[in-house]
Amino acid sequence: MKILDSSKPSSIEQAVETLQNGEIVAFPTETVYGLGADALNPVAVARIFEIKKRPRFDPLIVHIGEKDWIFKCAETIPPKAIELMERFWPGPLTIILKKSRLIPDIVTAGLSTVGIRMPSHPVALELITRLGRPIAAPSANPFGYMSPTKAVHVANMFKDTPLIILDGGNSSFGIESTIVSVSENSIRLHRHGAISIEDISSTAGPLSEKGDSGLCESPGELPYHYAPHKPLKIIRSFLEIETSQSSFLAFMPPQGKVPSKHIKTLCEKGDMREAAARFFSCLIELDQDDVDIIYAEEIPDTGLGKAMMERLRKASKKYSS
Ligand code: TXA
Ligand code: MG
Q: For ligand 1, is residue 139 a contact (CB within 6 Å)?
């Protein structure tokens, strides 16, 4: 385990060499930290699945450093995909397209499509462009756990794995990218994330949500995910808390005495960006408390709130089903 300060040029150099040797580097993005390998090296990519204990049917996102790489990674690029890429890249939007032959099958878990995104974090961009090839990366957490938004989260989650971690500070969005698939005439949402669906539809027209077609096209869309080790229950208000052996994740500062041992507040005045940026790091901290249960207060289900609620619902399903 080695944490490298990304502001030193020698750190980026070492990270690039590590990737060139077919090894893994954890690196910062504006959403969450990723566990990266050279996307064009199938053996290196296989290592990601091993380290993360991720099922092989769950495809990885390909991170590119320049928009033009989309033409190398994807077979066909519908006009709506170009519009989305021009509006939101670099940034937290993953676009699923028909894959080209350049992308190894292991990256897409055998699917004929590939998820592509150009991150905006300067360290991620520098790493990818210096490598000169795309980086395949899932979030840098063990499979099923919450995503890390700081280098130290990654270090704690992979204590026993020899791993290089590029420290680029806190991820500013704090929540994973929004994922859409784009075909000639439609856009489908696969995962709520750091860009709201309102913003996407105002650029490229209406999008259908998953479930509309009844198909499960994202093997990673498992019923539970993003889960803390502790049981998590969503509640409307802290008045529903049943035990003091609990932690409480409040959306805004609670008005009254909360009976929990430990309380974290996502934002002061309802700013969703602020809440999302703190979301996983608050939950990761609460998960370390000596309590029986984490209660999470419902978050308004609009904009980025939808992405946070989707994650809370999945986390709570781990124990309720
Ligand atoms: O913000 C993010 O997206 C972060 C950073 C590191 O970029 N990455 C991330 O990756 O969240 P991961 O692997 O934890 O989640 C990606 C999701 C998975 O649920 C996977 O199944 C889905 O994207 N996915 C990837 N490629 C896909 C494809 N071709 N078709 C359908 N779903 C895909
Ligand atoms: Mg993930």
A: yes
